[in-house]
Amino acid sequence: MTTDGPRPLALSEIAACFEGLIPAEIATASADGVPNVTHLSRVHMVDDERVALSNQFFSKTMRNLAENPHACVVVVDPLSYDSYRMMLVYERTERRGPIFERLRRDVDAIAALTGMAGVFKLRSADIYRVVEVEQVLAAVHVAEQ
Amino acid sequence: VITAETAELVESPCSLIVGTVDATGLPDASRAWGAEVIDDGHVRLLLSTQAEVTRRNVERGGRVAVTATHFFTFESVQFDHYCSGAAAAIAESDGTPLERVMRFITAGIYACTMTVEAVFDQTPGRSAGAQLAPS
Question: Which of A63, A141, B34, B116 could be bridged to B100 by S-S, CB 3.0 to 4.6 A?
Fold first, then answer.
């Protein structure tokens, strides 16, 4: 049997990207093709196929997702500086339960550390299925090749 | 469209993230490596050739969102624009300060002139998403 292309990456293989050391970014698009891009303080791994994002001020992002469930998130490995471009599909929103509480504690901690208590406030935990992960080598590693 | 305060933020050593969309509606996220405000309606962005999807989307003339964020205050603005000039290899572009390119060493850089249609406040808080210009 032959295989085409690189082996698909499991999220657990890039767990360092989900430690919140380097902010991620998320892009969404409206139904008429207008993109929106914003920072994420942290992307949380739920399982090997899903991530959770904290919804704090995602007004445009959530509007876009209501029209177009696809999102693109880029996370960075804080050890290698390689990036991982993930294509996501929005699945559901949680406003209580263990995932919500995990994200709420994290948002509260980040808010306290950055002087943004009272500004950063978790509205919901949004769960996405990861349909594709693409590694983008850091420039220093490209130069080594 | 672009005020002096917005230009100062965008041209500072800030975080620049880029959102584009392909013809089928799939969004794409990447980073920009420098921005230069040409006049109050145009910005030249320096983009990495490694972000191949971004380049395809920019070159097809799709809409582009760029959010600039100050690293310490989180003050953020987002430009909604499109590529109005051909993406040019950085060696072919003129007048781009070398230090902007060298801010982050990446595999390859090209420059793209953008026509800005709207500017939004993206600073975390209640005003996030509010349109700043045109007012």
Answer: B34
